[in-house]
Amino acid sequence: MDLLKLTALELGRKIKAGEVTVREAVRAVIEQAKEVEPTINSYVTLDEEGAYAQADEIQKKIDAGELTGPLAGVPVAIKDNMCIEGQLTTCSSKILSGFKPTYTAQAVENLKNAGAVILGKTNMDEFAMGSTTETSYYGPTKNPHNTAHVPGGSSGGSCAAVAACECYYALGSDTGGSIRQPSSFCGVVGLKPTYGTVSRYGLVAYGSSLDQIGPVAKDVADCAAILEVIASHDEKDSTSIERDDCDFTEALVEDVKGLRIGIPRDYMGEGLDPEVNQAVMQAAKVLEEKGAMVEVFDLGLVKYAIPAYYTIAAAEASSNLERFDGVKYGYRTKEYEGLHNMYKKTRSEGFGAEVKRRIMLGSFVLSSGYYDAYYLKALRTKALIKREFDRVFEKYDLILGPAAPTTAPELGKSLDDPMKMYLGDIYTISVNLAGLPGMSVPVGKDSKGLPVGMQLIGNVFDEKTLIRTAYTYECATKKVHEVPAQIGRTTEKEVQ
């Protein structure tokens, strides 16, 4: 039996049935990680000793009938911007080198309570600022489908780890597409829930009004089960919402009859790669054949989403990143004269170029004389974008489109032109501005063998429609997680 090819839920069932031990599952992914990590670089920290200790403890609880959930004993990787008590948390930045938090993020705590084995922390764009996982202090992550290409970002480490079978599922965070875009590039399923569904407590803040934690997995059923575990009301997070409809696995039904799906004309035009267009439209046709009503419509205000997003996100980032000053934790410059010089040198040496760019942009738009002209205008635009989506959802149940304008670009091609990188977020950032749920589902590959993702966007609190639609597509096409050819040989060995 090849354990690595199992989904998280399949493995959970085998562990519960006694066919596989938790230790065997952990050994399978750790051996895989050791083999492919020198090439892929998905992890910042891989806690082998801790994972085996957790495995033994969790096995006892499963045997005693204390842990009965579907994910009990299943190994998971966590994006390196979520705190875990006593475990290195760096946000892939030099300025947080050596930082070990004294508390654990609520989403991670929920997974632990469900019996998940935490393998380690995954690589990411520094402070989640980037779309390629190339701005990491710990070096770029590579796309498992073609290591000359990026995995996307900022949750590139989490998505690459799932794609390369280095974990059974992972947690990522999504501020402007950081789960959906790398999921699309790596050929996995990624879900960004409605804002407030998953607690942000313990998530190192980038853009507080936009950030949301979500699952990355091999298939739709896994995503639904993971979201069911991590979604919870949390008094420690003032933006957390109390929901009574978090039984997401109930939506795993193969039925889209009568579902009204809208495809924005603005998403399918100029700038979209023809092969991506073809794959997404073919997926829409599959849903139409299953009984959904699909039509093209005009979605206004899309062109204003990028400037509004980068104004708001940079403003919030400049405020959130003020706390990293070398005084209490993390990196501190070795030589300095006085307190202010220590601040300047620590931040100059500790932050990378992209983070500095966004802090400066944010400080500018919040400064006297520019606050009204830029920041307030961006907030008003955000409200208009939300109103536009409200109007659309009066007519449609969900919106379908691409997750990114192209497949994964080559390594080193994006950082030279930040504007081009920012424009790559065109299809994902509106979802964060409006607080909506969004999901990326693999729908094929281009002529270079790189995965293409379809994005589904739902109304607020309507993750179930996304899950039902994605599940129907998955069943109709019988798509299963495809192990990338470059690393496929490593998953073919039998795990003893």
Q: What characteristics describe this protein?
A:
496 residues; alpha/beta; eleven-stranded mixed β-sheet; 16 helices; 11 strands; disordered C terminus
- Treating each run of at least 4 consecutive H or I residues as one helix, how many helices? 16
Strand content: 5-15%
Low-confidence stretches: 489-496
> How many β-strand runs?
11
Give the neighbour order of strands across the main sheet.
1-3-2-4-6-5-10-11-9-7-8
* Cα shape: globular
* Rounded radius of gyration (Å): 21 Å
Q: Mean pLDDT across all residues, rounded?
A: 95
Distance between the termini: 9 Å
Could you state the order of secondary-structure elements as H and E? HHEHEHEHEHEEHEHEHHHHEHHEEHH
Structural class, judged by helices and strands? alpha/beta
Measured as a percent range, the helix fraction is: 25-40%
**Major β-sheet, in short?**
11 strands, mixed
